[in-house]
Write a structure and sequence with these properties.
Helix 12 crosses helix 18 and helix 16 runs antiparallel to helix 17. The protein folds into three domains: 132 residues, no CATH class; 162 residues, no CATH class; 140 residues, no CATH class. Strands 1, 2, 3, 4 and 6 form a five-stranded antiparallel beta sheet that branches. The longest helix has 27 residues. It is an alpha+beta fold and 481 residues long.
């Protein structure tokens, strides 16, 4: 087995080196994807079964388009590609699923699953979700497959070792940065299969949205959760796209779509959360009496929480673009990172980029030819092109993820309810959130938050002022030399 693995490592490393010399078009991620598509399946038999490597080719091919344009979008592109796969492994049937759950929760005698669904509701990268009952309570159980997780880790370790081997042997392979792409893929996989973190995020979301009558967040049953099992109360739902089922329950499809659009923008820009339950492809509507007509955000759906500064950036820049104020957008951009050299030159380029994008959204006439998805694309474009800090990279990645979801929502609205004005809803939400950012309540909250940092910040002010003055002197000397 060790000899086979060593042979696979050698073959993969040589293939990385070959691929780095084969094409010289500057699209690093496209070349990595092409490598996996060509060599991933061949490597599997040699390693006595390397399923992740053969499947990873599809992931990287799906992600290669975005990454060839903007390599900074690796996190989102790989995560989206993984989400769109049906699962890397064959799911368990009901008896094996029940046995695996019992083994994962041996110290929970009351964890007796009945009425277990024969097929999974959803299969992820290394987990599967079934409906069942615990006593009289309907539940939704997600199981992380131990064998799938071990194989994924083993295969990604092998891919990373091969990429590192190639970088040591070839300067062109180093320029291609294959180990970075494999590392990003691994980070995305680890985040997606962390069930305990997913349960914590679901509990936070349920608390955060407890007063929102549009959204239903199932309760996490912590007594039946651990690193391998996630259990929530089950809510009976129908797909948003199923007009007949909605009508039979007395729910108007067009009204729910309008609610979905508004909730999507408020969640992304107001709460700072992306949830796949608000994606047009996966949205489901409750048909239970207590929550009838509400959009259900299940725990087994992908979720991403944005940092406060990322959310504020997207709200501020989207508002500035709608108002045609490219200077305000550029100022917010530079607040999240400034160039170390040739500052004036870069600042002019940043302002020029936002000026070009603002012309597309500043008037109702200009907005007729573009969609809301393109607004999020514009928000992510400048941070991707003028990335002066890691924060810019993360903002660009988040914005492109929202752009993709907004595009799906617009297509669904156009197909099912063409009378709904997506721009009108989005603009109303953006203007309200921008006004809230500068309200007295918001300023007071910011002041209170900053005050907790003053004992650490105030003693550093003299050194920071001196450093800033020295940087200004160097910049002035560079500009006028």
């Amino acid at each position: 087995m060790f000899v086979r693995r060593l042979a696979t490592l050698w073959r993969l490393g040589q293939a990385f080196v070959h691929e780095s010399h084969h094409v010289d078009d500057g699209a690093a991620m496209t070349r990595v994807a092409r490598f996996f598509a060509t060599h991933g399946a061949r490597a599997a038999p040699l390693a006595a079964g390397v399923p992740a490597l053969s499947q990873l080719s599809r992931v990287l091919e799906n992600a290669s388009g975005a990454l060839a344009r903007h390599p900074v979008l690796a996190e989102t592109a790989v995560r989206v590609a993984l989400d769109e796969m049906d699962g890397l492994f064959t799911p368990y049937d009901a008896p094996r699923f029940r046995a695996a759950c019992a083994a994962a929760l041996p110290a929970t005698p009351a964890f007796e699953l009945t009425h277990l669904s024969d097929v999974p509701l959803r299969s992820g990268v290394a987990e599967q979700t079934h409906t069942a009952r615990i006593g009289e309570m309907p539940v939704r159980v997600t199981l992380l497959r131990a064998d799938a997780r071990a194989e994924l880790e083993d295969d990604l370790d092998l891919a990373f070792a091969a990429a590192s081997f190639a970088e040591r042997r070839s300067a062109k392979a180093r320029d291609m940065h294959p180990s970075q792409w494999v590392r990003r893929a691994r980070e995305s996989v680890d985040a997606m299969i962390d069930l305990r973190q997913r349960a914590a995020d679901q509990s936070y979301l349920r608390f955060r949205l407890r007063d929102d009558a549009r959204l239903a967040v199932p309760e996490v049953l912590w007594d039946y959760c651990n690193d391998a099992v996630l259990t929530t109360r089950a809510i009976r739902t129908v797909a948003l796209s199923d007009a007949d089922a909605l009508a039979s329950c007395g729910i108007e499809q067009a009204g729910v779509i309008a609610t979905l659009i508004e909730a999507f923008f408020e969640m992304a820009l107001g709460v700072g959360v992306y949830h796949a339950g608000l994606d047009a492809a996966g949205a489901r509507i409750s048909i239970e009496p207590a929550t009838r007509g509400q959009i259900v955000l299940e725990a087994d759906n992908p979720l991403m929480i944005f940092a406060a500064h990322e959310r504020e950036f997207m709200v501020g820049v989207s508002h500035a673009l709608l108002q045609g104020d490219h200077k305000a957008a550029a100022r917010m951009h530079l607040e999240h990172g400034r160039p170390q050299t040739h500052a004036t030159h870069h600042e002019v380029r940043v302002e020029s980029t936002y000026r070009r994008e603002a012309e597309r959204f500043a008037s109702a006439h200009a907005r007729r030819s573009v969609g809301v998805a393109q607004l999020f694309g514009a928000i992510g474009k400048a941070p991707a092109e003028h990335m002066f800090s890691a924060a810019h990279g993360r903002i660009a990645s988040r914005a492109m993820l929202l752009s993709r979801s907004a595009e799906r929502i617009e297509c669904m609205a156009q197909e099912i309810a063409p009378d709904i004005d997506v721009w009108k809803i989005a603009r109303k939400v953006i203007l309200r959130l921008a006004a809230d950012q500068f309200s007295l309540r918001s300023l007071a909250a910011h002041f209170a938050h900053e005050a907790t940092q003053w004992p650490h910040t105030l003693p550093r002010w003299p050194a920071l002022i001196a450093k800033r003055a020295a940087a200004s002197q160097r910049t002035r000397g560079t500009v006028f030399r």
